[in-house]
């Protein structure tokens, strides 16, 4: 998998002769490989530099690029300068969203004009192609299977930390490359904190347990959240759960290419407002994901731009009652012109363990 042609075809739109990519997601998006390398893409060529730790793997996995191993005498910057000279690069785009001040100062030593061009890659990454989507489907399949397994594992007396560790084990044993983020497991009152860190809180009867987790497969992320009850939930817990579920379903019904992020956010937020819980929904409805767990564009009130075909977003409303409990339900969807494909296959009606 690589996107050298797509990047090369966009250079003229940004009035660039070439694009240099050095970030982990930028490198992987361009050549389908990560080796702490440097990628230089022109309209009709690519040069890729990496060191001795990665060169053998790069030569096996990277296609469509001239591959060179860095040495003490030929550093990344020396090879980049050579490429600028030999390819006649006058305007070079760089990833301003990832480049540190120190790295930028090194780039200014090149004999060409530097142009911030993060938007070029971000625009491409916002719409997943079929190969990218297939990787995300597989990552989500692993995550769904891990959820099924964890339902047979959770019991009163366990800590949040134990459940989080088991979730990671279940994903890794099914082929995950790594976690897409540190899993969240929040029991009881901890569930009122959307990004609670798993700790030594003991799971007991009558508690909600919220689990937010995902993995990476083929370089691409999955993400899902489920809230389950351990023992019998009270009536208010059931009301809140049903309100969040209704809001989440409304968001999925509204999800399609062309809708703005603001409109998608509002489609679910309105349901919680009408149920009387709107003030306890404290974050946006969702975010894009792919090579990173948080990408653009977002399903947020601040996003008034239409969402593109192929965007993959989370739909994750929540209600968080401070000091009491919280509920969040999250699926991932791929946007189409006429609706969306739901990647998450796990059940989301209230599960009582």
C-alpha-based Rg, rounded: 23 Å
What is the helical fraction, as a range of percent?
25-40%
- What is the percentage of strand-forming residues? 15-25%
Structural class: alpha+beta
CATH level 1 class label of the largest domain: Alpha Beta
CATH architecture of the largest domain: Alpha-Beta Complex
Shape: elongated
Element order: H for helix, E for strand? HEHEEHEHEHEHHHEEEEEEHHEEEEEEE
Mean pLDDT: 97
* Residue runs with pLDDT of under 50 for 5 or more positions: none
Count the DSSP helices.
10
Write up what this structure looks like.
The structure is a single chain. By secondary structure, the chain is an alpha+beta fold. It has 2 domains: 4-126, Creatinase/prolidase N-terminal domain (Creatine Amidinohydrolase, Chain A, domain 1, 3-Layer(aba) Sandwich); 130-342, Creatine Amidinohydrolase (Alpha-Beta Complex). The chain is built from 10 helices and 19 strands. The longest helix is centred in the middle third of the chain and has 22 residues, at 130-151. It is elongated.
List keywords for this structure.
single chain, 3-stranded antiparallel β-sheet, Creatine Amidinohydrolase, 19 strands, alpha+beta, 6-stranded mixed β-sheet, 353 residues
Summarize the structure.
This protein is an alpha+beta fold and 353 residues long. It folds into two domains: 4-126, Creatine Amidinohydrolase, Chain A, domain 1 (3-Layer(aba) Sandwich), CATH 3.40.350; 130-342, Creatine Amidinohydrolase (Alpha-Beta Complex). It is built from ten helices and 19 strands.
